[in-house]
Design a protein that fits this description.
Number of strands of chain A: 11
Helix content of chain A: under 10%
Low-confidence stretches of chain A: none
Number of helices of chain B: 0
Largest sheet of chain A: 7 strands, mixed
Number of helices of chain A: 0
Radius of gyration of chain B: 14 Å
Largest sheet of chain B: 6 strands, mixed
Shape of chain A: globular
Strand content of chain B: over 45%
Mean pLDDT of chain B: 91
Largest interface: A-B, 30 and 21 residues
Order of helices and strands of chain B: EEEEEEEEEEEE
Strand content of chain A: over 45%
Oligomer: heterodimer
Structural class of chain A: mainly beta
Shape of chain B: globular
Mean pLDDT of chain A: 91
Order of helices and strands of chain A: EEEEEEEEEEE
Distance between the termini of chain A: 36 Å
Number of strands of chain B: 12
Distance between the termini of chain B: 41 Å
Structural class of chain B: mainly beta
Chain lengths: 112, 116
């Protein structure tokens, strides 16, 4: 079945360490997105990519980095510069030929 | 700038009651899409509906219905005869530009609790 796979589901890291969240899709979607969700704040856009080898900053890109070397993959790195990284991270993808946006099941990152 | 407002933070109802979730949006584009998503406790977002800016017809899908009014920039969602399984956080979202690869802007969500 086609879909988006985010791994791992839960991630614990020590403060000051970089960590990379995986997002893979087999939907042949052109665009991919990373959102961060904090309690009571809805989803905020971190980065998005509409085509391979290109990506744009969202509203809260500081302290994060991404790459889009392959159409199916859009990993997100949470760097030590991100002041408050503990959150729920959701990856999504969409096709330029219509349909809705498909979301992964999320990664809950806890920094201790 | 584009913005989505969901003023209702939390709503509690008893099973079989009807409930309406409000969504107000701001955009300067004439071409845009509006969405509703459901987020159950598992965390994954479930797509419910997409509506483009040129289609103001109301839509009904089973117990769900949506009322899109451009004059008031609103896209409200009604659940008829609510059930416990409807308990979730519901998000309204906006995508400008008319392409399906434009970024989604979300409201802060409305938590719906349906009690038996």
């Amino acid at each position: 079945d086609g879909g988006i796979t985010q791994s791992p589901k839960y991630l614990f890291r020590k403060e000051g360490q970089n960590v990379t969240l995986s997002c893979e899709q087999n939907l042949n979607h052109d665009a991919m997105y990373w959102y961060r969700q904090d309690p009571g704040q809805g989803l905020r856009l971190i980065y998005y990519s509409q085509i391979v080898n290109d990506f744009q900053k969202g509203d809260i890109a500081e302290g994060y980095s991404v790459s889009r070397e392959k159409k199916e993959s859009f990993p997100l790195t949470v760097t030590s510069a991100q002041k408050n990284p503990t959150a729920f991270y959701l990856c999504a993808s969409s096709h330029d030929r219509g349909g809705g946006y498909t979301f992964g099941s999320g990664t809950r990152l806890t920094v201790v | 700038a584009q913005k989505v407002t969901q003023a209702q933070t939390e709503i509690s109802v008893v099973e079989k009651e009807d409930v309406t979730l409000d969504c107000v949006y701001e955009t300067r584009d004439t071409t845009y899409y509006l969405f509703w998503y459901k987020q159950p406790p598992s965390g994954e977002l479930v797509f419910l509906i997409r509506r483009n800016s040129f289609d103001e017809q109301n839509e009904i899908s089973g117990r769900y219905s949506w009322n899109f009014q451009k004059s008031t920039s609103s896209f409200n969602f009604t659940i008829t005869a609510s059930q416990v399984v409807d308990s979730a956080v519901y998000f309204c979202a906006l995508s400008e530009g008319g392409r399906n690869t434009d970024k989604l802007i979300f409201g802060t969500g409305t938590r719906l609790q349906v009690f038996p």
